[in-house]
Amino acid sequence: MPTQGKSVEAFADQLMDMLNQGALSLMVSIGHRTGLFDALAELPATTLTQIANHTGLNQRYVKEWLATMVSGGILDYDPQQQHYSLPDSHAALLTRSSSPDNMAVFAQYIGLMGQVEDKVIDCFRLGGGVGYEHYPRFHEVMADDSGQTVLAALDEHILPLIDSLIPSLESGIRVLDIGCGRGRALCHLAARFPNSRFVGYELSEEALDYARNAARQMGLDNLRFEQRDLTGFEKRAEMDEFDLVTAFDAIHDQTTPQSVLNGIHKTLKSGGTFLMQDIRASSHLEKNIDHPIGPLLYTLSTMHCMTVSLSNGGAGLGTMWGEEQALEMLSIAGFDSVAVHQLDHDIQNNFYVMRKA
Q: Which of 96, 101, 161, 284 is 20 to 30 Å from the Cα of 150, by its Cα?
């Protein structure tokens, strides 16, 4: 819908708030990565020196970070006692112990995307894209993200979306995860369901090294990881190989997403199930204007999802490809009946469930 604009004063206030909140997002990421929020939750009403000593961090940097958090309304400060404290209601959304509600995890994307700003600007002028190799912490951040939206909800919310899946996994089936990253979800499933066999496909060798090491430490012998470039997957997918295929927040990043979906249909056995988690949004901009995290998701699309696909000459679907386009592409792949689920804890994703006829 068209906007009528705002007064200069109102828009100036919006821009000022945007600058402050953007700065706070970066510092919230630092608080998460350094463990400062976790420390403050453990040390209520504490001093600068105590916080620095507890975390082993440089006191001068901690002081400036604390000042940012106090001025941003995230920490409380008692000037008489010079005590800093993290309110319980804030700790519930900013500490590792608060998973899956730890929103500090998502603040990491701001710094990550900022690292490639110059390269993305070059793409604005010249076209093309920015490859995965330019995002050194991408799989680390995605593993954190997965811990919030997938791992924490897998047993109680996601697996029950598919009728009779848990008994089948307990009896023993073959499972493929597309774009498995560091393999946190697969390691969890392989440990819980020892009679089933699991395979993870992933392009990043760094992510695969992490996943394989995690599987070894857990003593899992029913799980393997393979380095796979899924471009043109339908040509190389094994026919009727798997009972269950999963793709958690992976399809829209692919160079050839339609070929990947076609290949998933091909590699599923008759009666097999495909579970796809992907972004909850519309394919039409006007329907996303009131999306609660629309600006963030369109930014992530520009700065990562779309540009990574375009770097390989791909489709460049972008993060906000939307439910309408997803359903159309799934239909082209051969999935005639698709159930779309939404989970209360996850405002970011849809969960698509479909069976191969």
A: 284
State which amino acid sits at residue 300.
L
Distance of CA 221 to the CA centre of its chain: 27
- C-alpha dihedral over 145, 149, 154, 160, to 10 degrees? -160
Closest to 246 in 3D by CA, of 136, 146, 108: 146
Residue type for position 191: A
The amino acid present at 334, given as its one-letter code, is: G
Give residue-wise pLDDT tens across range 3-53.
578 899 999 999 999 999 999 999 999 999 999 999 999 998 999 999 999
Please tell me the predicted confidence (pLDDT) of residue 149.
85
> Is 52 strand, coil or helix?
helix
SS3 102: coil
Residue 121 makes CB contacts below 8 A (sequence gap 6+) with none
